[in-house]
Amino acid sequence: MADTTFRKGHIPWHKGRKGVYTSEQLKRMSEARKGKPAWNKGISPSEETIEKQRVSIKEITSDPEYRKKMSEKFKESWSNPELREKQSKAIKSYFSNPEARKKLSEALKGKILSEETKKKMSGRTPWNKGKILSENPEHSRFMQGKRLSPKTEFKKGLVPWNKGKHIWTNKEHPRGMKGKISPMKGKHPSEESMQKMSESHKKKMSDPDYRKKVIDRNREQILKKYESGAFPKQTDTKPERQIKEELVKRGYEEGKDFIHQYQFMGKFMCDFCFPQQKVIIEVNGDFWHANPEKYNGKDLHPHQIKGINRDKSKEAYIKKVDNNSWTLLSFWESDINKDVAECLNKIEEVLAEKKKI
Questions:
Q1: What is the DSSP string of 156-214?
Q2: Are 172 and 102 in contact (CB under 8 A)?
Q3: Residue 256 to residue 247: CA distance in whole angstroms
Q4: How far apart, in whole angstroms, are the C-alpha atoms of residue 350 and residue 120?
Q5: Which long-range contacts (CB under 8 A, 24 or more apart) does 43-46 make?
Q6: What's the distance, CA 306 to chain centroid?
Q7: For residues 224 and 301, is the Cβ–Cβ distance under 8 A?
Q8: Strands (E) located in the chain
Q9: How many helices (H) and strands (E) does the chain have?
Q10: pLDDT value of position 329
């Protein structure tokens, strides 16, 4: 290669000129360079060069005409649906990679804005200040009855690429919150906010489809915890508390007249027991014990099948032990919720018959 040191500091003759090379020449040059590494690959630019580039970029971007031109080009390009779709796929592909998310998180972690940048941001007026944003009735209550601004007009009718998708987990959050204390820790919402949240929740739960969806999701989570052994055994469920409260209301004393959570013959636990009358009361959850009125003819979960077999064994043992002197009463969760007083009436009928014997 010829010595080029004499060119150092010289400005290339074709710098700033357009049309020096024809399209065919540019194509041939491009093909000739294909597969070859760049001459400056692995060589880091000096601090002086970086500073020059930074100053040059600032000068170019500070030009109002240049900024206006770039803004128009950006709007024109993003009004193309094919380009938006292509960009959306590229973003999804990038953020679906855990390493890329981790790299981004590390890059943003600990970044502090300079005082100059903060000053610029504080002096700027938000682009949407005083502007009406949307007229779509499906939008949130903060945007209903409003109009899209010219800046966001091209987005009208588009579905956000991340709608309904969970992108970040707590461990992979891009803002580097791992190991840091939440800014909301120790703070409590106001009474007004609590009331609004309560009303919103009641409104959503009044929808049968939404309610079923929430119950199924919660049940699925509980089953996973139950299978892993992380879910504690439930010994004081809501139906049990309802029975217990009604018993106390009618004058029965716990420990004297009845026992809650009674270990029967050292074999298994029963929900309630009246030792003197030899009466056992079992409170069965509709799901866990597979209430026939709700699950008859349906495919049962393995936990439901286990519960049915356990109930049969328990019932057979109670009826046979001690010369068939024990009585077992079972009540479904739905029956207790419907009319707990009626359930107690049946219990008292059996207790009255036992006293006569």
A1: TTPPPTTTT-----GGG-TT--TTSPPTTTT----HHHHHHHHHHHHHHHTSHHHHHHH
A2: yes
A3: 12
A4: 81
A5: none
A6: 32
A7: no
A8: 259-264, 268-274, 279-284, 327-332
A9: 13, 4
A10: 93
Architecture of the domain made up of 238-356: 3-Layer(aba) Sandwich (3.40)
pLDDT (mean) for 116-132: 66
Cα–Cα dist 244/236, whole Å: 10
- Bridge partner residues of 268 (DSSP): 264
Of residues 254, 277, 246, 274, the one with CA closest to residue 342: 246
Asked whether the whole model's pTM tops 0.70, one would answer no
Q: Extract the tokens encoding 205.
A: 């739960």
Higher pLDDT, 20 or 26: 26
Q: Please, which residues bridge with residue 254 across strands?
A: 258
Q: Is 283 helix (H, G, I), strand (E, B) or coil?
A: strand
Distance CA 251, CA 231 (A): 35
Q: Closest Cα partner for 243 from 281, 203, 194, 201?
A: 281
Radius of gyration of the chain (CA): 36
**How many residues can be counted in the chain?**
357
Distances in Å between the alpha carbon of 70 and those of 76, 83, 121, 154? 10, 17, 21, 17
Instruction: Give 65-108 as a DSSP string.
Output: HHHHHHHHHHHHHHT-HHHHHHHHHHHHHHHT-HHHHHHHHHHH
Greatest CA separation found in the chain?
Answer: 122
Instruction: Average the pLDDT over 182-197 and give the result.
Output: 81
| Alpha-carbon span 27 to 24, nearest angstrom | 5
The per-residue pLDDT for 142 is 45
Contact status, residue 174 vs residue 105, Cβ threshold 8 Å: yes
Q: Is 333 exposed, middle or buried (0-12, 13-18, 19+ CB in 10 A)?
A: buried
Domain limits, the chain = 57-106+138-176, 193-228, 238-356
pLDDT of the residue at 158 = 60
- Each residue's pLDDT tens digit, 56-79: 888 888 888 888 888 888 888 878
